[in-house]
Structure formats: C-alpha cells, structure tokens
C-alpha cells in the first residue's frame, strides 16, 4: 500500500515560500496517483504564483485527459501549464519573466514514471541513493562536458542558472524516466533548497535513520535549515510498499 508525506518550508533566509507541492494517493484522471514538486522563480510575486498556478493547470489537465499513455498524459499537461504561465506573465507586468521548475511522478503497478524540467529532483533511496532526474542547469551542463566536478558544482556561483523551466519559452520539453521499484526502496522528490544544503549521502543517512515517513521528511527539513536554510525547501516522500 502506497504511503506518502509532503512538506514545504520557507527556510531561514527567504521572506516568502515559492516552492509548491501536490500529492494525491487517489486517482487523478487516468493516473492512479500523482505527485509534483515545483520551485518558482521570478520577482517578488512571480515565483510563488508560477509554481502554484503551473501545478493547478497541470493537475486539471491530467484530470480531464482521455489519453491512456502515461508520458503523453503528463507531456500534454506540461505543455498546457507552460502556455498558461506564459499567458499570465504576458498580461501582468508584476509577473513578467516568471517560471518554475517541475518534477512529476506517478507509481503504476510498482513502476515509477517521472518527468522533470529544471533542477528539482527525484531520487530512489535504499541502501544507496540514486538521482533519477538530470538537472537542467548551467553547472550540470558543465559537469556533463567534464568542465566541472560534482562537488564543485554544489557551490558554483552560477549553480542557480536554470536552462529549462516552465514559462521560459513558448515550447518546453520534459525529460522522462521509467524505473521499476523494488521492495524497500523509497522515492524522494525535492527542490534545490534541500539538495543545496545537504549532499546525497547526508540525505540517505537521514532517510535510513528515521522510523516513520513523517519523521524522515521533517528531519530532512530540519537538517537543511541547520545547514543554512538559504532557500525554500520542498520534500515529497513516497513509499510504494508501505504497510
């Protein structure tokens, strides 16, 4: 039985929370469940609006979709959310330039289907930690080309430059991943407010050290804040085999 918990936190440095999470263990349209983390960007009002509005449009689109192919359901909804965010930004000077990252997941028959845009992430954690998504960011491009090592990327001054986001261009393309889940594995979806404050091994240790899924999520938030809490923090934990 699926067990989940989601939480966001403003962090220690920001005056507003521009992260947004959506979690439904019940069906949304033709998907049996749906989980989303979005991290907004753009001005004082823009980022918070972009993340919540994009998720709202995406969920509505998935809810009314007659498609049966998972990737198509999500891809169509992402395109609709992108159009909606761009239309709002064009019509309101205070929202101009806004955008949001997004990582979307659904679990179907023990198989995890994932889409991502930007640098919000999805991990699978057991005795080890595996990042499933690939960041769409300037520093990740540098790492892939061999110009920067992984550890330096975490503190690089340009690490907040996103190369793909909902609302940034007329057309947006998500990366899709499908992963077979095994007993004992847990899914973590999060914004960069978590991963900029904690490295992968710290995250794995926290998740292996707590008993309850709620405690695990709350401990991640606490640790990120104790390490500086420089950004908003969003966390969704999914245990596909929860008792």
Q: How many β-strand stretches?
A: 11
Note the gap between the termini.
6 Å
Number of helices: 7
Strand content is: 25-35%
Described by strand count, sense and barrel closure, the largest sheet is:
6 strands, antiparallel
If you compute it from the alpha carbons, what radius of gyration comes out, rounded to the nearest whole angstrom? Answer: 17 Å
CATH architecture: 4-Layer Sandwich
The structural domain count equals 1
CATH superfamily: PPM-type phosphatase domain
User: Given this structure, which CATH class is correct?
Assistant: Alpha Beta
Along the chain, the helix and strand elements come as EEEHHEEEEEHHEEHHHE
What overall geometry do the principal axes of the alpha carbons give? globular
Helix content: 25-40%
Overall mean pLDDT: 93
Uncertain stretches of 5 or more adjacent residues: none
Summing up helix and strand content along with how strands pair, one would put the structural category as: alpha+beta
Assign the CATH topology: Phosphatase 2c, domain 1
Summarize the structure.
The protein is α+β, with helices and mostly antiparallel strands and 243 residues long. 33% of the residues lie in helices and 26% in strands. It has a single domain (3-239), classed as PPM-type phosphatase domain (Phosphatase 2c, domain 1), CATH 3.60.40.10.
